[in-house]
């Protein structure tokens, strides 16, 4: 949502934290010949607006939410309608659903109301929003189950694919055949089925950017969360051994 205009000549322009982000920073309202009014968003960890204030810090609108976006209570201190929800979502007040570009999201159940447009290629959980509603986002309604290969993936695939081969009792195709696509899909399956559980954010070495850490079934999966809500494969290692012992949780 960049701008919306209502029948009463009231327009709202939305400003975001950066050009690749869906997290709102400010809203500029204009009504007819009246001066522009600038308001500022205060968001939760996942970028969902919790307050809207004026230039002096006065709260104009506020709302508290449950984990998956269901409203607990909403207060308009002034007659200002604020419909932005999770990043990339816009509230339809008639239905209570959130428009999420390619699908509608139902905050009452924490799931989409339509299946993934690409079917099983996106994973087995066709209606899933994201693995974790607190730290994950899906601005387009498409990315809840995707894992991108990322930098140095070939090297990590060749060195660590044996962990999954032993677990599943199979051999992965050579790199030239599918470039690790089946390997990534199996990690998605383990994650989406809950066998790999998100245990928090940590780093392989102190001072590095925070990574998403999953553990389960004797293995540790490390991923980087991207601005569009997808995740990038970093590595897969055995739990309780080697590199896993050095993971630092701040």
TrEMBL record:
<dbReference type="InterPro" id="IPR022385">
    <property type="entry name" value="Rhs_assc_core"/>
</dbReference>
<dbReference type="InterPro" id="IPR001826">
    <property type="entry name" value="RHS"/>
</dbReference>
<dbReference type="Pfam" id="PF03527">
    <property type="entry name" value="RHS"/>
</dbReference>
<feature type="domain" description="RHS protein conserved region">
    <location>
        <begin position="38"/>
        <end position="74"/>
    </location>
</feature>
<protein>
    <recommendedName>
        <fullName>RHS protein conserved region domain-containing protein</fullName>
    </recommendedName>
</protein>
<dbReference type="InterPro" id="IPR050708">
    <property type="entry name" value="T6SS_VgrG/RHS"/>
</dbReference>
